[in-house]
Amino acid sequence: MNCRVSSLDVLVAAHVLLLINPPFPDTLLKDLLSQSYPSLVSLSRRVYSAAFESSNSDITFAPTTTSLWALFPSWPEKRPSTSKESPNNTEDLHYTHMRWGFLGLVLGSLAAYLVLVGRQYQITWKVAGVDDNEDAEEVLETGPGTSNV
Q1: Which domain holds residue 24?
Q2: Which one of 15, 45, 46, 107 has the largest count of C-beta atoms within 10 Å of its C-beta?
Q3: What's residue 106's pLDDT?
Q4: DSSP-derived 3-state class of residue 14
Q5: Residue 75 vs residues 64, 78, 106, 124: alpha-carbon distances, Å
Q6: Does residue 79 lie within any of the structural domains?
Q7: Whole-number Å distance between alpha carbons of 56 and 47
């Protein structure tokens, strides 16, 4: 099967392989990539083998989509809880309260900023290419009770 490898695939493979192949003193990045992103590592190795080792490649890609929605990540799927702990233990509940408290603080600060500073600025809308004097003349000429013949 002949699949084409894009330049983005080669770029990502080059960066991933530079983090995996060299013998670094600390293998934290190598272990993190290998354990957390095994599909990215296998894609990088297949791109490398397609580019340098053999003339026939077995690279398969998912069908490409041309929608803008493809740029956004999908929502995480809800996984059933398998732990014996209650899903809302005290630490999780505290974390949730702190997160919502932070969000409320951010939104409150934004509202206060807009109230205090926003009054100093006036927003006006102008249509590009239209002069205010020309509009006034057109309105006077074509106003009620006049005819343009």
Answers
A1: 7-63
A2: 46
A3: 94
A4: helix
A5: 19, 9, 24, 39
A6: no
A7: 12
Rama region for 129: left / alpha / beta (φ>0; ψ in -120 to 50; rest)? left
Please report, to the nearest 10 degrees, the dihedral formed by the alpha carbons of residues 137, 142, 145, 149 taken in order.
120
pLDDT of 82 > 90? The answer is: no
**pLDDT for position 1:** 45
**DSSP 8-state symbol, 52:** I
What's the structural domain count of the chain? 2
| pLDDT surpassing 90 at residue 132 | no
Residue 51 pLDDT grade (very low, low, confident, very high; cuts 50, 70, 90): confident
Q: Which residues contact 10 (CB under 8 A, 6 or more apart)?
A: 47, 51
* Residue 3 and residue 59 in contact, taking contact as beta carbons nearer than 8 Å: yes
pTM: 0.36
User: Quick one: CA torsion of 52, 54, 60, 61, rounded to 10 degrees?
Assistant: 20
Distance (Å) of CA 121 to CA 63, 71, 74, 106, 113: 50, 36, 39, 22, 12
